[in-house]
Write a structure and sequence with these properties.
It contains 7 helices and 10 strands. By secondary structure, it is of the alpha/beta class. The chain binds adenosine-5'-triphosphate and magnesium ion (MG). It comes from Polyangium spumosum.
Length: 226
């Protein structure tokens, strides 16, 4: 993943806000990067742009060697579905579906996906995340931390190459948070999954191989080892 002079301006009528300003960033395959920065510094915006969800940027974004700006919406949607897992800051679960249905939704859009296989992978992920017994609940019946884990399972369903997470441990108690961090470390180590995670949490940041600090839409040029 690479950005060149990436700028994102939100047009808010009278005041325009520059959520990202001239960001030059390279994330190599297999890196585990944590993004830190105060509220409003552009962290969620950065994830949305590099995840291909927000196309209103200026500058250049390259994903898996392809220039996002040159891709059609359909091609970008396919790339997202096949290679990117996204954990949103507010989870975005579908409330009328059960947990297991939520986790398998990413496979619904792929006609080649095998329903049985998706279901069995979803079940394994739920087990790994300590939610095996909640598969047939709806999100409304879950705690915030449980919902967050459902969102993580969903992001991992298609075995993405790049996992983008916005505060993935934000709602978790210490023990569950530690479990998620372990899972990320394992995926990073064993499957060379590239991870970019926004966080306020010291523990998650310590697990990363690199820390990136955002301040008012700019990347702090001093990069820090964790
Ligand atoms: N859709 C939008 N319309 C207008 N302004 C926006 C929009 N999304 C974000 N912004 C502005 O862009 C800036 C960066 O927002 P962003 O959500 O990326 O911050 P953040 O670092 O994720 O903050 P937090 O830690 O609170 O989640 C903020 O000033 C915000 O008000
Ligand atoms: Mg945010």
């Amino acid at each position: 993943m690479r950005t060149r002079a990436l700028t994102r301006v939100h047009d808010g009528g009278r005041d325009t806000r520059r959520a990202l300003a001239d960001v030059d960033l390279v994330v190599e395959e297999g890196e585990f990067v944590c993004v830190l920065g105060p509220s409003g510094s552009g962290k969620s915006t950065l994830l949305a742009v590099i995840g291909g969800l927000d196309r209103g940027y200026e500058g250049q974004v390259e994903l898996f060697g392809e220039d996002l700006g040159r891709m059609s919406d359909a091609a970008l949607a396919r790339l997202r579905g096949e290679r990117i897992g996204f954990v949103f800051q507010h989870f975005h679960l579908l409330h009328h579906l059960t947990v297991i249905e939520n986790v398998t939704t990413p496979a619904l859009f792929d006609p080649r996906a095998d329903e049985e296989a998706s279901r069995s992978r979803a079940t394994k992920l739920l087990e790994r995340l300590g939610l095996a017994d909640r598969a047939f609940d709806t999100p409304a019946e879950l705690s915030g931390g449980q919902r967050q884990r459902v969102a993580i399972a969903r992001a991992l369903l298609r075995e993405p190459r790049l996992l983008l997470c916005d505060e993935p441990t934000g709602n978790l108690d210490a023990e569950t948070g530690a479990r998620i961090i372990e899972l990320f470390e394992e995926l990073h180590r064993e499957e060379r999954l590239t991870i970019v995670a926004v966080t306020h949490e010291e523990r998650l940041a310590r697990a990363a191989t690199r820390i990136l600090r955002l301040h008012e839409g700019r990347v702090d040029t001093k990069e820090h080892a964790p």
